[in-house]
Design brief:
about 425 residues; alpha+beta; Aminopeptidase; Alpha-Beta Plaits; 2 domains; 5-stranded antiparallel sheet; about 35% helix; binds glyoxylic acid; binds manganese (II) ion
C-alpha cells in the first residue's frame, strides 16, 4: 500500500532544507542547500531499495531494475530546487511520490518488465541563472557551452558553480539519454492553480503544458537631475517601463488564455534624486497555443515601439528561453483515467499553466502528468499546500500509471498478485 504518512513525512523533512523563518524554502542550484536536499533524496532512494547515481549535470537518479534490464526505461520524478521563498510541494512531490511508488513495488515484490527510474532534476526553476530546466535540458542534450557561461546575479557562471560543488562542467554531455533507451516520462506535480479545488477533486490529468517565453527588456532613457530637469524634458526609463508593464498586462488579458508576468525590475542608477536612466525588467509569457502567444508577443512589441517613440527612449531585448507547448500523450491520459477508475477517484482533465521538466523530456519520449489539488491555488509562495490525503491520491494514480507502463509480470514466480493500492 502507498504509505501516505511516509510521503508526507518526507515532504516535510525535505521542506526543512533551505527554509527560513518568516519566509519559505529557497534551494537554488549548486548551493549547499541543494546538496543537502540531494543527499536526503539519495537516502530516501536507498531506503526504497533503489540503485542510486548522480549524473554529470547534477540530477540524482534512483533505478528499480526490470525483469528485462535492456528494455526501455520508464522515467518519473520532478525537480529538487525551489524558487526564492517557495513551498515544500513544488517539485518535491513528484520526486517523493515516485520514490514511494517504487518503494511500494519493492515491498509488494512486484515485478515489471521495464526498469523504472526516478529523476530528482537539478535546477528546474531557473531562479539562479535565469534559464530553467537545466537538469532535464542536460538529459535531452540541449545544454550548450553558452549555457555554462551564463551568470547568476553575483557574477558566478554555471560552470563555476558546478565546479564549486565538485562537478566537472566539461562532462555535461554524459547526462544525455537517447530516445531508444526510454519508454516514457510521467511526472506527478501539484496543480499550482485553483481548477481542481473549484471542482472539489483531489487529482487531475494533464492534457498539455503551456509554452514558456522568458526575456529581458532593457529600457534606455536618460539619467538626469531630479530637481533641475522639468517634467517635459525627461527621458525617464522607469515611467516608460511602467507603461510597458501595463501594456503587457492589457495585451495578455485580451486573449482570455495568455498569462504574462513582469517578475523582476531593476532601476538604474537607483538614486532618490536621479531620473532613472535605465530599467531592466523580465517578461514571462505563456499560452497553451504557440500561435496565440506569438500574436500577443507581437502586439506587446508594437505598443513598446509606440511608447519608445512617444517618450524618446529605446529598448534592447534578450531572449532567455523559448520553450514550445508540450502535449501530454493520449495513452498516458487514458492510463491515468483507468487508474482513477480503479482507485475510485473522480478526476478532471486540464492543461498545465506552469512549466515542468516534462516540457523538455517530451523531446525524447512521450510524457504524462498527474496533478494534485493545491489549496487556494497558491504556489511559489510559502503558503503552498496540498493535504496528505490529496498527495496520497496523486501517488496512487502515479503507482498505477507507472505499473501499467512498466508492464507488470503477473505470472512470475517472484511476484505476489499484482496489487491495487
Ligand atoms: C516553474 O515553476 C514555472 O512554471 O516557471
Ligand atoms: Mn515552480
Ligand atoms: Mn515545479
Amino acid at each position: 500500500m502507498i504509505n501516505a504518512e511516509r510521503v508526507f513525512h518526507r515532504l516535510q523533512e525535505l521542506g526543512k532544507i533551505g527554509y527560513r523563518e518568516g519566509g519559505g524554502v529557497t534551494r537554488h542550484a549548486f548551493t549547499s542547500e541543494d546538496r543537502a536536499a540531494k543527499d536526503l533524496v539519495i537516502k530516501y532512494m536507498k531506503e526504497a531499495g533503489l540503485e542510486v547515481r548522480e549524473d554529470a549535470v547534477g540530477n540524482v537518479i534512483g533505478r528499480r531494475e526490470g525483469k528485462n534490464p535492456q528494455a526501455p526505461v520508464v522515467l518519473s520524478g520532478s525537480h529538487i530546487d525551489t524558487v526564492c521563498d517557495g513551498g515544500i510541494f513544488d517539485g518535491a512531490l513528484g520526486i517523493i511520490g515516485a520514490i514511494e511508488v517504487l518503494q511500494t513495488m519493492n515491498e509488494q515484490k512486484v515485478v515489471t518488465e521495464h526498469p523504472i527510474e526516478v529523476y530528482a532534476f537539478n535546477d528546474e526553476e531557473g531562479s539562479r541563472f535565469s534559464f530553467s530546466m537545466f537538469g532535464s535540458m542536460g538529459v535531452i542534450g540541449r545544454i550548450t557551452e553558452e549555457d555554462l557561461a551564463k551568470k547568476d546575479r553575483q557574477g558566478i557562471s554555471v560552470a563555476e558553480a558546478m565546479r564549486e560543488q565538485g562537478y566537472d562542467p566539461e562532462k555535461f554531455r554524459d547526462a544525455i539519454r537517447s530516445p531508444e533507451e526510454l519508454k516514457a516520462f510521467i511526472e506527478l506535480h501539484i496543480e499550482q492553480g485553483k481548477v481542481l479545488e473549484s471542482k472539489n477533486l483531489s487529482v487531475g490529468i494533464v492534457t498539455g503544458i503551456v509554452n514558456e517565453l522568458w526575456m529581458k527588456i532593457r529600457v534606455i532613457g536618460e539619467a538626469g537631475h531630479a530637481g533641475a530637469t522639468p517634467m517635459n524634458f525627461r527621458k525617464d526609463a522607469l515611467v516608460a517601463a511602467a507603461e510597458m508593464v501595463q501594456v503587457i498586462e492589457r495585451e495578455a488579458k485580451k486573449t482570455g488564455t495568455t498569462v504574462a508576468t513582469v517578475g523582476r525590475l531593476n532601476v538604474l542608477p537607483g538614486g532618490i534624486n536621479i531620473i532613472p536612466g535605465q530599467v531592466e525588467f523580465t517578461l514571462d509569457l505563456r499560452d497553451i497555443s504557440q500561435e496565440v502567444s506569438d500574436k500577443v508577443e507581437r502586439e506587446i512589441f508594437k505598443e513598446i515601439d509606440r511608447i519608445c517613440q512617444e517618450r524618446g527612449v529605446r529598448v534592447e531585448t534578450e531572449i532567455l528561453q523559448r520553450i514550445p507547448p508540450a502535449p501530454c500523450s493520449k495513452g498516458f491520459q487514458l492510463a491515468a483515467k483507468r487508474a482513477c477508475e480503479k482507485i475510485g477517484l473522480e478526476y478532471f482533465c486540464l492543461p498545465s499553466g506552469a512549466g515542468h521538466d516534462a516540457m523538455q523530456m517530451v523531446n525524447i519520449c512521450p510524457i504524462g502528468m498527474i496533478f494534485v489539488r493545491s489549496k487556494d491555488g497558491i504556489s511559489h509562495n510559502p503558503a503552498e499546500w496540498s493535504s496528505k490525503e490529496d498527495c496520497a491520491d496523486g501517488v496512487k494514480v502515479l503507482y498505477h500509471v507507472l505499473l501499467e507502463t512498466a508492464v507488470p509480470i503477473e505470472d512470475d514466480s517472484l511476484c505476489n498478485e499484482a496489487v491495487g493500492c
